[in-house]
Amino acid sequence: MLDSEESEAEVERMLADREPLFTVSGTTYTIPKQVPVAWTLQAFNIAMTAGEKAAITWACATVLDPEAWLALQECRTLTAKNLEAVMKAVMDKVIPDGMPIPKA
Q1: CB neighbours of 25 closer than 8 A, spacing ≥ 6?
Q2: How many C-beta neighbours within 10 Å does residue 62 have?
Q3: Burial, 90: exposed, middle or buried (Cβ in 10 Å; 0-12, 13-18, 19+)?
Q4: pTM of this prediction?
Q5: Could you please report the per-residue DSSP string of 57-75?
Q6: Residue 72: which of 42, 9, 27 has the closest Cα?
Q7: In this structure, what DSSP letter does residue 101 have?
Q8: Which of 25, 36, 45, 66 is most deeply buried (CB count within 10 A of its CB)?
Q9: pLDDT of 33-88, one tens digit each?
Q10: Terminal CA-CA length for the chain
């Protein structure tokens, strides 16, 4: 059974185990060390139906908590290089190495 209590608890543990991703105005924002495989499938589906940019936007909005996503959008000193690093980190979580899905 895919939606068992055990599976749900595993996903909750997975999402609670986080690591720092970026800091804005002295606040450090984190990202899960691992994300649910369903998110990989959702990102892949979005990429195939709406395009790579839509998939990356969805992944950032999903993987980052709302405060982190807002802080990133409102950071006046965010550079293209910094944004690329954040997006790469997000996509590396959503489509980790070894998954049978091509990375963008």
Answers
A1: 71
A2: 16
A3: buried
A4: 0.84
A5: HHHHHHHS-HHHHHHHHH-
A6: 27
A7: S
A8: 36
A9: 999 999 999 998 999 999 989 999 999 999 999 999 999 999 999 999 999 999 99
A10: 32
Please state the length of the chain.
104
Q: CA–CA distance from 90 to each of 9, 14, 47, 58, 77 (Å)?
A: 22, 15, 15, 10, 20
Q: Is the pLDDT of residue 101 over 80?
A: no
What is the rounded distance in angstroms from the CA atom of residue 44 to the CA atom of residue 18? 23
Non-local (6+) Cβ contacts of 12 within 8 A are none
> Which amino acid is located at 98 in the chain?
G
Residue pLDDT, tens place only, 53-63: 999 999 999 99
Nearest to 89 by CA among 51, 17, 42, 34: 34
Paired tokens of 92: 């590396």
